[in-house]
Amino acid sequence: MGELAADKHVKYILAVEKRKDSFESAVLEHLRMNGAYWGLTTLDLLGKRDVVDSNEIIEWILKCQHESGGFAGNIGHDPHILYTLSAIQVLALFDKLNVLDVDKVSTYIAGLQNEDGSFSGDIWGEVDTRFSYIAICGLSILKCLDKINVERAVNYIISCRNVDGGFGCTPGGESHAGQIFCCVAALAITGALHYVDKDLLGWWLCERQVKSGGLNGRPEKLPDVCYSWWVLSSLTMIDRVHWISKEKLIKFILNCQDTENGGISDRPDDAVDIFHTYFGVAGLSLLEYPGVKPIDPAYALPVDVIDRIFFSK
Amino acid sequence: MDKELGLLDKLQAMDARNFHAWNYRRFVAALMKRSDEDELEHTENMIDKNLSNYSAWHNRSVLLSNLMKKAAPGFTNKEEVLTREYELVCEALFTDEDDQSGWFYHLWLLDQTVRSDFPLLVSSWPVEGSDIFLPAADCLDGCASMNVFHYSSRNFPLVLYFNQSVGGVNSSTVSVSCGFNLNADLIWKPLSSNDSQCAKVWATRLAIPDAELHSSEPYQVEVKVGYSLGIVSTTGVAYSHPSQTSFQLHLQKPPLESGHESRLGKIQWKDDCFADYESGSAEPDLVNLLLDNLTIKNEVGPTASTWQARIIDYETNIFRDLLDCKIGMLTVARLLTAYDLLRPLDKPVHCEEVLELYSELMKLDPTHYRYYKDNHSLVLLQQVTSSKESLLSHCFHYRDSTLSTSGGPLCLRLNNLAISQLGSFGKLLWVQVLDLSNNGLQSIEGLEALQRLSQLCLRNNKFRSFTALESLRYLKSLKVLDISQNEIGSHSIDTTRYLFRSPLSHSMGSCDGNINDLSSKAYWEAFFVLKDMGLTQLDMAGNAIASGSFNVFLEKLLPTLKWLDGVQVN
């Protein structure tokens, strides 16, 4: 079995962070906030949170905040719930949530809840269970969960539950590992995991592991390293992670590394990116790979960060 | 609008699994007010073109659920509808045995076949027709009684075990009458780790006041469940099959057999401390009574003589032709298990074959070894708890050298069985002393139903965290706990972190969730589990967490503790 080329990945992340004039960074400029979360959380998981200048990053984050209270993906872009969560998560990593006007941010998020309990991504109204997770995760970190109607939020999520035990993006939507992570994590945070049939969903999730050892996102699809997070964290939260072969998955993830230049790709021999680098390392964390800090499966942040938020004071 | 459908057809022809397309199709169909029946036909067309279309099968499940729910014409006869669907999906399963597209649809059909919509009482404690003996004076240490029907305290639990999670169990919907007035004071609690006020298992404690038990005549107690409306399943179905159990309360004349009720010394879980259970003892034929009366006789729901059994039989025969592959073996195992489920009052007949199938699957598909192992364990426990012979072979008397009598408390020993998952709790409501050592357990979810449990051994299993011991928070009678030789403290990832009442899942009241001192924060999982327990004996050795500072923390947290890891506590 190969090894985790941790130092190479750290170098890769730092290099991407600096590359502000490449084609790639231009195309992804609007989601730099997500990229910051992926990159910085990976550094933290590899024990290298301190190699970056947190003050510089925090300064930039605050520049991305809108008057509505929401955060944009980059300076000059429009606010969206997606980037608002990433901003909160990065500040939590650096234990700097106190720079936030908590009331302002939480009001922005709470304002995106609809009558039926669902959440829109921004003022333009797209509804998706991803946004339900984002709202619940973000507000929980800020200790403001009571600003939304939790019961309705939970009911909406349950309305997206399918007969295979999984969840879709909207009611009637096909089960997809990404949506399943969002719904299961949201239910975990709100103490509502009893609405999940663990054995039924557990079987659907464990059958995502294909012959190569990798995980796909739904039946008869190709495996992808990012599902190492979404499927694995869901399995972890419902205590069914022992239903897959951990060794085979570790091998698959390690095979997706670029051991020369650093970074992890979606499947072996493809081009690497920050997104898959984060999910590969996060997956290895859940698999208790040595040298990787433990990650919380619901909040997608290191366990020590979450424990600090909920068990201090 | 037709143009939109045309556009969608084009897109779906290029990518039949594109979920944006399917979402948009649902949106357009709703706008056009296309009938579910027409959309159902569309899914059938998609499936005809390519059986390997999970998205089409999913859509079909949504439409069909809706049509059956609103009892649309042509969809009211469940047997007809399911038979048609089984035919359709079997084609997919047989065409390519490795293609998963139809697997989950087929499992859903099976669930639709055997599921009883009605909430029902499965078992309860005390058992119908039993004689319960209460002491004249409370046993000082609340130790386990020698006999299952003896109590060492005049405060004992009543347990109701349902087939699904229900709410609305209270002193209005459940009446307990025993000659003197105490029903109104009874508080029924749902044994669940969430705030839903619903649970599969409900319990209350009957406390017989001093003034009442002076008579030498036994008291007849009647427990009536659901004679008044109010109990409802979480799916919204009202409980409508009232059930009644009665048992007799006797006052035990003191002293019984001096010594046996006095405090047992340190409990040891060694083989030579257990003596075979002799059914020829003075007590009533325990095991027969438990097997015959523990399970409530409900005359509703699918049984072995209804259309459900016919379908299962038919499907089983078909899938026996597919026994050379994974999905064939798994489906036959599930069908045989389902058949036995239709006959809850009879001994299951398919256990052996099902156990063999899961064993074969463990070899055929080692990636999912533990999935098959967990199911194997569930069937094994079903087998053990369903027959007199096998149950007796696991019953022992605890033999303590300090006891003068031949028989100590009755113990159920399910050790060394390589079980990785627990089940059959409805059959174990009577258990006071339970030995689960030397197995592969990592969770005890469901054990909260065993309200009488006072001594529990989980030594040498695979427990990874105190959060996996959530069920213990509901076992108010637990005095002796052995969790030595486990993996608590060895794992960086906690897989039961969110299945546990804690501030992380917002499932604790603001005052309950407060931890003030540092050591309690460091060991917050252990703190929440153990803080309200009255343990007298605890074994933790052989866990990475066990250390000097942890032991100091334990002794502070558990003032009632007498022995820690076999050593007397000051």
From TrEMBL, chain A:
The coenzyme or cofactor needed here is: Zn(2+)
List the CDD domains. GGTase-II (cd02894)
Q: Which InterPro entries match?
A: PGGT1B-like, Prenyltrans, Ptb1, Terpenoid_cyclase/PrenylTrfase
What GO terms fall under cellular component here? Rab-protein geranylgeranyltransferase complex
Question: Which residue intervals define the domain Prenyltransferase alpha-alpha toroid in the entry?
Answer: 4-300
Gene3D superfamilies the record matches? 1.50.10.20
Keyword Metal-binding part of the UniProt annotation: yes
For whether the record's keyword set contains Metal-binding, the answer is yes
The enzyme's E.C. designation: 2.5.1.60
Which GO annotations describe the biological process of this protein? gametophyte development; root development
According to the record, cofactor stoichiometry and binding are noted as: Binds 1 zinc ion per subunit.
Q: Keywords for this entry?
A: Metal-binding, Prenyltransferase, Repeat, Transferase, Zinc
Reactions it catalyzes:
geranylgeranyl diphosphate + L-cysteinyl-[protein] = S-geranylgeranyl-L-cysteinyl-[protein] + diphosphate
Instruction: Name the protein family.
Output: Belongs to the protein prenyltransferase subunit beta family.
Q: Tell me the subunit arrangement.
A: Heterotrimer composed of the alpha subunit RGTA, the beta subunit RGTB and REP; within this trimer, RGTA and RGTB form the catalytic component, while REP mediates peptide substrate binding.
Output the PANTHER family linked to this UniProt entry.
GERANYLGERANYL TRANSFERASE TYPE BETA SUBUNIT, GERANYLGERANYL TRANSFERASE TYPE-2 SUBUNIT BETA 1-RELATED
Q: What does this protein do?
A: Required for male fertility and root tip growth.
Q: What is this protein called?
A: Geranylgeranyl transferase type-2 subunit beta
Q: Which organism does this record belong to? A: Linum trigynum
UniProtKB/TrEMBL annotation, chain B:
* EC number of the protein: 2.5.1.60
Which molecular function term from Gene Ontology is one that the record holds? Rab geranylgeranyltransferase activity
What is the main EC category here? transferase
Which InterPro entries would you find in this protein's record? Leu-rich_rpt (IPR001611), Leu-rich_rpt_4 (IPR025875), LRR_dom_sf (IPR032675), Prenyl_trans_a (IPR002088)
Mention one GO biological process in which this protein takes part, according to its record: prenylation
Its cellular-component GO annotations read:
Rab-protein geranylgeranyltransferase complex
Alphabetical UniProt keywords: Leucine-rich repeat, Prenyltransferase, Repeat, Transferase
Signal sequence residues: none
The reaction(s) catalysed by this protein are: geranylgeranyl diphosphate + L-cysteinyl-[protein] = S-geranylgeranyl-L-cysteinyl-[protein] + diphosphate
Q: What does this protein do?
A: Catalyzes the transfer of a geranyl-geranyl moiety from geranyl-geranyl pyrophosphate to cysteines occuring in specific C-terminal amino acid sequences.
- Similarity comment text for this entry: Belongs to the protein prenyltransferase subunit alpha family.
**What is the name of the protein in this document?**
Geranylgeranyl transferase type-2 subunit alpha
Organism of this sequence: Linum trigynum
